[in-house]
């Protein structure tokens, strides 16, 4: 979008976590990093320099976190960047922040944002880090209940050639979910009116079923489909996200995170973990509303990220051991472990 540029080629670039006896967050130079990380840092510095050259920027860098300091220092001493800063006319402040300093933000569910939900729940577009597959079967005469139907190519979120879709995506990113869904309806109604499709505008709350019924109007009209294909892909992504079981779980996560914040404020870590323990269930004991193994890993990252200093002791060790045992059992009982669980095991 106009305000956000992602660099998917560097999606795996994460600061090394200090292990037991490993390097702490003290000042480290690029030479002290593992070879693979060193190469990734140099790639990032080169790409940022290209970006700043295109924008004609003379930057002043600030860094928060150990790896960010290394990257800022590398950029400052990079020869092409030095030459660029001598001649560039626009000034900018650049702030680097280590991703591991905001894990609570990355795993939390506090955002009331449609774009975030779409990117979280729909399957990734193969070969892409920042786009998703939108099931397009609804726009065809093909009737199938197979969710993985691969006869119809998937749609996606990137619609650079469709001004209406680009504007709608901006509202998905910048508005609250309720307003963004209303924008989706408004764009659909306008598109249908332009194509003289028999649309009945309704007021009040927008439901996924209502959006689906509007999309159906385009189905047998090839010209209308072609003219508004980008917009229809975004609205279909909205419908599929709102109907997705993970979206209803989103509110459960949010409620549980708020409860955890209260509990952490009032009691110690062991009692928080003991609260979590009975909720860890194996595959054959889980209902659709229960948390999966991945959900628990996300919750644990959240808890340990927001709790701050943890008082060590026998009580904590016991509570942690119980949670570990329950999680290991749940992971081992998974009939079809996800790629993430396979990677972990």
UniProtKB/TrEMBL annotation:
The entry's keywords: Signal
* Domain of life per record: Eukaryota
State whether keyword Mitochondrion applies.
no
**Glycosyltransferase in keyword set:** no
Q: Kindly state a single biological-process term from the GO annotations of this entry.
A: vesicle-mediated transport
Signal peptide range equals 1-21
The protein here is known as SCFD2 protein
Coiled coil ranges (UniProt) are: none
* InterPro entries reported in the protein's UniProt record: Sec1-like
């Amino acid at each position: 979008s106009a305000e956000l540029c992602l660099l998917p080629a560097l999606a795996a670039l994460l600061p090394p976590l200090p292990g037991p006896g490993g390097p702490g967050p003290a000042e480290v130079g690029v030479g002290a990093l593992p070879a693979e990380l060193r190469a990734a840092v140099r790639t990032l510095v080169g790409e940022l320099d290209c970006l700043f050259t295109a924008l004609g920027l003379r930057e002043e860098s600030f860094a928060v976190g150990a790896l960010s300091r290394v990257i800022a220092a590398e950029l400052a001493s990079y020869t092409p960047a030095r030459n660029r800063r001598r001649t560039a006319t626009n000034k900018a402040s650049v702030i680097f922040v280590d991703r591991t300093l905001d894990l609570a933000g990355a795993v939390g569910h506090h955002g009331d944002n449609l774009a975030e939900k779409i990117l979280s729940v729909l399957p990734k577009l193969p070969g892409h880090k920042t786009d998703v597959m939108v099931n397009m079967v609804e726009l065809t005469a093909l009737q199938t209940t197979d969710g993985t139907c691969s006869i119809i190519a998937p749609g996606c979120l990137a619609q650079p050639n469709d001004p209406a879709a680009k504007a709608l995506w901006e509202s998905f990113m910048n508005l609250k979910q309720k307003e963004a869904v209303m924008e989706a309806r408004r764009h659909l109604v306008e598109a249908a009116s332009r194509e003289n499709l028999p649309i009945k505008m309704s007021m009040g709350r927008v439901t996924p079923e209502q959006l689906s019924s509007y999309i159906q109007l385009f189905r047998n009209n090839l010209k209308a489909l072609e003219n508004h294909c980008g917009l229809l892909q975004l609205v279909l992504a909205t419908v599929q996200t709102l109907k997705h079981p993970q979206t209803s779980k989103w509110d459960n996560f949010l409620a549980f995170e708020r409860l955890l914040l209260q509990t952490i404020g009032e009691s110690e870590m062991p009692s928080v973990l003991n609260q979590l323990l009975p909720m860890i269930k194996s595959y054959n004991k889980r209902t659709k509303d229960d948390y999966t193994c991945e959900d628990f890993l996300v919750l644990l990252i959240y808890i340990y990220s927001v709790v701050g200093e943890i008082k060590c002791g026998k009580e904590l060790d016991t509570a942690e051991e119980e949670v570990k045992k329950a999680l290991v059992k749940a992971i081992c009982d998974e009939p079809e472990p996800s790629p993430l669980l396979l990677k972990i095991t």
